[in-house]
Amino acid sequence: MSLITVGTMAFDAIETPFGKTDKIVGGSATYVAYAASNFVKPIQQVSIVGYDFPVEELEELKSRGVQLDGVEIVPDKKSFFWSGRYHADMNSRDTLVTDLNVLADFNPQIPDSYQGAEFLMLGNLVPAVQLSVIRQLKQRPRLIVMDTMNFWMEVALPDLEEVLKHVDILLVNDAEARQLTGQFSLVKAAKSILQMGPKYLIIKKGEHGALLFDKDSVFFAPALPLEDVFDPTGAGDTFAGGFVGHLAKTGDISFENMKRAIIVGSAMASFCVEKFGATRLREITKTDIEARIQQFKDLVNFEIELL
Ligand code: AMP
């Protein structure tokens, strides 16, 4: 089943307690595409890059079944640039620089060949652009999943609230859920987000796992306890790619299958953090992914006799 992925393709400069990178390839849609392409093809990417984005990266993505007809290349502008510094706990970070560059006037045109896609993953991006993609699709996808971040809550809240009315699942981290609702309790925050439009909500809690809510139920998945977390950049997008990739592969959008999708997303995210940027996502094989999902099963599987 086809999956449209929308988001940034970018350069990132990252500082963690373990090291520092100069500009490396990142961006929400890049991570989503690397993760999801392990499960479903084609991935139909919608993004924008400047003259400086490496051709080899585009070729690598293509070789993984990622279609780039919806990726605009602007010949006289630079790609989106983001720079961040992680705190010692590796769960929180400060954004140092957000240079929109090509993103400042991004007005995507959805190629005809993308029409009819059943799944839409709106990666972290300008909310008005996320909305424009939904509006351009002649047939509403069966499932629309959306990611966002605090930056857009600060600079484009009304647009963000509008997109929320049109999506099925929102993905945010715990701090963002609190910021969006003004509620400290994540259960209360979930209740209020589920009244803003989405039918399901996923709250990511970094090394403490993720929660899936619908109006009646909640499910929790842990993150894999890793000896070393090297660079968490892109973990949220990689989680999203694994999550939606599993749903698109199976075609099953029930709450039960979303539980499995969360485990797949968590497994993919656990690879992402092992090396800088998307390096680890380029290396892993199907066997690595299967072994990691088995580790998750072993981690949470127990039997108990009820009294
Ligand atoms: P994550 O660590 O999952 O939140 O994703 C980090 C990625 O998001 C980086 O590769 C950045 O290029 C990208 N990014 C950072 N800020 C933004 C933004 N405001 N909008 C879209 N993408 C962003």
How does this structure look, described?
The chain is an alpha/beta fold and 307 residues long. The protein has one domain: Ribokinase (UDP-N-acetylmuramoyl-L-alanine:D-glutamate ligase, 3-Layer(aba) Sandwich), CATH 3.40.1190. The protein is built from eleven helices and 14 strands. A nine-stranded mixed β-sheet has the order 6-5-1-9-10-11-12-13-14, with helices on both faces. Strands 2, 3, 4, 7 and 8 form a five-stranded mixed β-sheet that branches. Strand 13 (210-213) and strand 14 (218-221) form a beta hairpin. Helix 3 (127-136) packs parallel to helix 5. The model has no long low-confidence stretch (mean pLDDT 96).
Q: In order across it, which strands form the biggest sheet?
A: 6-5-1-9-10-11-12-13-14
CATH topology: UDP-N-acetylmuramoyl-L-alanine:D-glutamate ligase
Q: What is the typical, i.e. mean, pLDDT? A: 96
- The helix/strand class is alpha/beta
Number of helices: 11
Helicity range: 25-40%
Report the order of strands and helices: EEEEHEHEEEEHEHHEHHEEEHHHH
- CATH top level label: Alpha Beta
Would you count the extended β strands for me?
A: 14
In whole angstroms, the N-to-C terminal distance is 45 Å
- Quick one: overall form? globular
Largest sheet: 9 strands, mixed
The CATH architecture term is 3-Layer(aba) Sandwich
Provide the domain count.
1
Instruction: Pick out the low-confidence regions.
Output: none
Present the secondary structure layout.
Elements: E1 3-6, E2 10-16, E3 19-20, E4 24-26, H1 28-36, E5 43-49, H2 55-63, E6 66-73, E7 80-86, E8 93-99, E9 119-122, H3 127-136, E10 143-147, H4 150-155, H5 157-164, E11 169-173, H6 174-181, H7 186-194, E12 200-204, E13 210-213, E14 218-221, H8 235-250, H9 255-272, H10 279-283, H11 286-300
Parallel strand pairs: 1-5, 1-9, 2-7, 5-6, 9-10, 10-11, 11-12
Antiparallel strand pairs: 2-3, 2-4, 7-8, 12-13, 13-14
Helix pairs in contact: 1-8, 3-5, 6-7, 8-9, 9-11
This protein binds adenosine monophosphate.
